[in-house]
Amino acid sequence: MADSNSRSKEVDEWIAKLKPDLQKIANALRDVVFEAEPAITESIKWSRPVYSKRGNICSIDPAKDHLNLGFFNGVNLQDTAGLLEGTGKKLRHIKVRKLEDVRKNEFRELVKYSAMLHTAEK
C-alpha cells in the first residue's frame, strides 16, 4: 500500500461523501493506482480525484450507482482483458459497480501502461 502521506486530504473528503458501498470501491481503486505508480500525484480536478504524473493519467469518476476508473489516454491502452469502454477521441473508462469488480492486476497494468505512455509523449 502507498504511503498515506502521498494521499490527498481533499480526496479523503471526497470519498467520505460517497455512499458506503462506493466508498469501499473508491478506496480500492485508489489503492490500485498508488500500487501501480507510487510517485503519482493525487488531487481533485473537475470535482473528482485525478491522478497525475507529468500530466493527467487517470481519474475516479462518480456516477449514480457506480464509479468509473477513467483513463485520459485510454484510446492508446492495450486492453487485452477488454475492460475499457467509451467512444470518445481519447478517454476510456471501466465501470465498477461493486467491490468484486475491482480487478487489481488488470487495473494496475492499465495504470502503469497509461503512465508510461503519457511520460513517453512528453
Q: Would you mind describing this structure in some detail?
A:
There is one protein chain. With about 120 residues, this protein is of the alpha+beta class. It has a single domain, classed as Aspartate Aminotransferase, domain 1, CATH 3.90.1150. It is built from three helices and five strands. The protein has a five-stranded antiparallel sheet with strand order 1-2-3-4-5. A hairpin with a 4-residue loop joins strand 3 and strand 4. Helix 2 crosses helix 3. The chain is globular, with a radius of gyration of 13 Å. It starts with 8 loop residues before the first helix and ends with a helix.
Topology of helices and strands:
Blueprint: H1 9-16, H2 20-36, E1 41-45, E2 48-52, E3 56-62, E4 67-71, E5 92-96, H3 104-121
Antiparallel strand pairs: 1-2, 2-3, 3-4, 4-5
Q: Briefly, what CATH class? A: Alpha Beta
- Main β-sheet description: 5 strands, antiparallel
For this structure, the CATH topology is Aspartate Aminotransferase, domain 1
Q: Any idea what the radius of gyration is? A: 13 Å
Instruction: State the shape.
Output: globular
Instruction: State the distance separating the first and last CA atoms.
Output: 28 Å
The amount of helix comes to 25-40%
Q: What are the low-pLDDT stretches, counting only 5+ consecutive residues below 50?
A: none
Elements, N to C (H/E)? HHEEEEEH
Strand order of the largest sheet: 1-2-3-4-5
Q: Which structural class is indicated by helix and strand composition?
A: alpha+beta
Count of individual beta strands: 5
| Overall pLDDT level | 93
CATH architecture designation? Alpha-Beta Complex
Domain unit count? 1
